[in-house]
Amino acid sequence: MSIDPGNTDERVQQFQSDLRAMELPKVIRKHITTGSSAVLADSTYYELRNQVADYFGLHPACVIVVGSCRMGFSLKPDKRYTPFGNTSDVDVAIVSRERFDSYWDLVFDHWQADRMWTKSRKYRRFLRELFKGWIWPRCLPPSTRFRQALEWVEFEDRLGRERFRGLRSVGARLYRSWERLEAYQAIHVQDCKQALLRG
């Protein structure tokens, strides 16, 4: 495991400077959806991406880290600009229309077979996640139909143990497109920009 938070203040200043000077999509691409991780060594980042890509049968370019592991600090309102730390999770985004649609088909089949699922708390959580633009295995229905989801959860847990000595959880969320991923990221980036302009 190679973690180096580095100089968070410099990264925050650069991010804020870009918020003032650049259009939102360009800020998101510069600081989130392209480039290297602020805290993972390049070799560690490549190995993580490659391992996730192999699991899903994708090219490593379809896998990136996001959140504080990518930027070195959080954008969420309650943690804004808090550096990546000892309790920070590693958030992974996987972008694949084909993989997203295959999981969505499984969900639809389950919904047709078991309408009682729609009355559960897990169903409401699944909908909230879906409308944020992603599918996450821990929000899928608990069913033998979702053997793939159970295996996906086990894979996330194994990544945390093997790559980060069990000290960090890994959340691998599946997005249908780069547009959906960037649309979700835009929510927090826009909030940061508005707070910055309010001064």
Description of the molecule:
By secondary structure, the protein is an alpha+beta fold. The chain has one domain (8-198). It contains eight helices and four strands; from the N terminus they run H-H-H-E-H-E-H-H-E-H-E-H. It has helices at residues 8-21, 24-33, 42-56, 68-71, 97-113, 121-130, 147-164, 178-198; strands at residues 63-66, 90-95, 134-135, 170-175. A four-stranded mixed sheet has the order 1-2-4-3. It is globular.
Taken together, the total number of domains comes to 1
Biggest sheet strand order reads: 1-2-4-3
How many β-strand runs?
Answer: 4
Which structural category fits the helices and strands? alpha+beta
Q: Count of helices? A: 8
| Residue windows where pLDDT falls under 50 for at least 5 positions | none
Distance between the termini: 38 Å
Query: How much beta, percentage-wise?
Result: 5-15%
Shape: globular
Mean residue pLDDT: 91
The ordered string of helix (H) and strand (E) elements is: HHHEHEHHEHEH
Helix content: 40-55%
Radius of gyration: 17 Å
Main beta-sheet annotation: 4 strands, mixed
Describe how the helices and strands are arranged.
Layout: H1 8-21, H2 24-33, H3 42-56, E1 63-66, H4 68-71, E2 90-95, H5 97-113, H6 121-130, E3 134-135, H7 147-164, E4 170-175, H8 178-198
Helix pairs in contact: 2-8
Summarize the structure.
By secondary structure, the chain is of the alpha+beta class. Helices cover 55% and strands 9% of the residues.
